[in-house]
Design brief:
Elements (H helix, E strand, L loop, with lengths): L1 E9 L2 E4 L3 E2 L5 E5 L6 H9 L6 E5 L8 E4 L10 H11 L6 H10 L15 H13 L5 E5 L7 H17 L3 E5 L3 H7 L2 E6 L2 E7 H6 L4 H22 L1
Parallel strand pairs: 4-8, 4-9, 6-7, 7-8
Antiparallel strand pairs: 1-2, 1-3, 1-5, 9-10
Bound molecules: adenosine-5'-triphosphate and magnesium ion.
The site of magnesium ion (MG) has 3 residues, from helix 1.
Length: 236
């Protein structure tokens, strides 16, 4: 996929990208401070909002093969099961109940199938949101902070799931997270956003540790200090 000279104004914010290639079949990470435009970029890719100018070359990828999970998942009024079936229903795919049961079981949600989805805890909602995204075998998956409320064990579960999918039938991932340890562990390529621009794209080591750009160095240093702070608070 190529993102070509996109411009999108929203209030006093402007997203402005040069040409960026999102290489197929890789796990990409999008990092950058609050409000720099990460979610906006995902929504543009999803076609949920339209750019003022520029374009996205999907290179043959059908928009229905793209999915996005949000930090605060949105659920239709209905059960967990109905929500997981929803992306299948709109694509006229018959749900495979056994497959859905297996996902629920793997995520420790086997007792929640008939529960009203909006009454789930936030971590449970994030897990259902992940299952709902994966259930129709999309080829391009954006995870917008969705894993942020998961405890370490569940985060590891989904890291495992992502790596398994990559082994079986590689898809293109865009992971957005402020947890740099997770990003570093999972991603091959990173894109750093700053005030609506994609400042740099490259290998994770280059972006996190090999950059001369002061804005990126400051961001990484701050995130690392936060991580160590949390760690110290946890220990102390
Ligand atoms: N509908 C809108 N109207 C006005 N401004 C908007 C609108 N949607 C988003 N914005 C602004 O666009 C900017 C980019 O928002 P975006 O959600 O893409 O940031 P982000 O990088 O995902 O941040 P975070 O890390 O906090 O999730 C923000 O300043 C936000 O307030
Ligand atoms: Mg966001």
């Amino acid at each position: 996929m190529k993102i070509i000279d996109l411009i999108k104004k929203q209030g006093d914010f402007e997203l402005r990208t040069k040409s960026v290639t999102i290489e197929e079949g890789k796990i990409h990470g999008i990092i950058g401070g609050n409000g720099c435009g990460k979610t906006t970029l995902c929504k543009l890719i999803m076609g949920m909002i339209l750019p003022d100018s520029g374009k996205i070359d999907y290179e043959g990828l059908d928009i229905r093969e793209i999915t996005m999970t949000a930090q605060r998942p949105y659920f239709i009024r209905g059960s967990v099961y109905e929500n997981i079936c929803y992306p299948l229903k709109i694509r006229h795919i018959q749900p495979d109940e056994q497959k859905i049961d297996a996902w629920l079981f793997r995520c420790g949600l086997e007792g929640k199938k008939r529960q009203y989805a909006r009454s789930l805890s936030s971590g449970e909602q994030q897990k259902v949101s992940m299952i709902r995204a994966l259930i129709f075998d999309p080829r391009f998956i954006m995870i917008d902070e969705t894993l942020s409320n998961l405890d370490p064990e569940n985060l590891e579960l989904f890291e495992q799931v992502i790596l398994e999918i990559q082994k079986e039938r590689p898809v293109t991932w865009m992971l957005i997270s402020h947890r740099l340890a997770h990003i570093y562990k999972m991603c091959e390529v990173l894109h750093f956003m700053y005030k609506g621009e994609i400042l740099a794209s490259g290998s994770k080591d280059k972006i996190l540790f090999g950059t001369e750009d002061e804005r990126i160095r400051r961001f990484v240093a701050n995130e690392v200090i936060k991580m160590e702070g949390n760690h110290a608070a946890f220990k102390g």
